[in-house]
Amino acid sequence: MILASTAAELPARPGQGRRAIVMTMGALHEGHLALVRRARELAEQVVVTVFVNPLQFNDPADLERYPRTLDADLALLEPLGVDVVFAPAVEEMYPGGEPVVTVSAGQIGHVLEGAHRPGHFDGMLTVVLKLLQLTQPDVALFGAKDAQQVIAVRTMVRDLSVPVEIVAVDTVREADGLALSSRNVHLSEQERREALALSRALLAASDAARNGDPARTVVETGRAVLEEAASASALIEVDYLEAMDPQSAQPVPDDYRGEAVIAVAAKVGATRLIDNVTVTIGEEER
């Protein structure tokens, strides 16, 4: 396994083989490793990037607090047959300081996660495009837990004619339903128990969708579960629970029918968590 810290150290593309990339900010967990395993199935060469991107943090304290565990990450990646780990410093990625030219997420960057984290998706797309340019992969894999991110990346790739296939890999969860996240390490035992309110809310919304309930009822059902948990615990601060269009990330109208992503975000203690589930609205299961 090659560890590259500069673009010059990245190996050339394989001759006839496919190259896959998994982009991470480190602090790897089983969700990241599921991406790597899927990448190994899809390509002859697998590149994993480890870079905590300052452009996608609008809170300096959150950036400082983000876990950095490169040695542990490398130990997890090597047994999976990863060919290259690209772990650049900020100065390598942005040698002139904060870049003048960046990618805009457009309307995707103004709703839901974008509304609560202004500039986040612009910063994310900027680093994703730069990493795609540097590594030249055939396929890039992203976790479905960050549903709005996946939508933004797919839209950028389409609109800017970037020659790469985007593959979303299902969210990996603990046995009790909590979605894996690098931020989970910050949760106390009590906070972790309280965090299960997010997955419970999504399950309630999913059940409503399976019952054939309209979009408004699906959302209200999920919100009710989350808001009840928040009213019972001072640890939970709800940001949103919304149904969004899986193509545009825009909230769906009350009479919407078809596939939708129920997305949720909340703070549990000092840790902000997101999760989602894909449902079909307006068609009762038989």
Description:
With 286 residues, the protein is of the alpha/beta class. It folds into 2 domains: 2-169, HUPs (Rossmann fold), CATH 3.40.50; 182-281, Pantoate--beta-alanine Ligase, Chain: A,domain 2, CATH 3.30.1300. Helix content is 36%, strand content 21%. It has a 6-stranded parallel β-sheet, with helices on both faces. A 3-stranded antiparallel β-sheet has the order 7-8-9, with helices on one face. Strand 5, helix 7 (147-159) and strand 6 (165-169) form a beta-alpha-beta unit. Helix 6 (120-135) packs across helix 7 and helix 8 runs antiparallel to helix 9 (215-232). It is globular. The mean pLDDT is 95.
Mean pLDDT: 95
Shape: globular
Structural class based on helices, strands and sheet pairing? alpha/beta
- Tell me the series of helices and strands, N- to C-terminal: EEHEHHEHHHEHEHHEEE
> What's the β-strand tally?
9
Biggest sheet strand order reads: 1-4-3-2-5-6
Oligomer: single chain
CATH superfamily of the largest domain: HUPs
Largest sheet: 6 strands, parallel
Q: Counting H and I runs of at least 4 residues, what is the number of helices?
A: 9
The CATH architecture of the largest domain is: 3-Layer(aba) Sandwich
Q: How many domain modules?
A: 2
The parts where pLDDT drops under 50 for at least 5 residues are none
The CATH first-level class of the largest domain comes to Alpha Beta
CA-based gyration radius: 19 Å
Approximately what portion of the residues adopt beta-strand conformation?
A: 15-25%
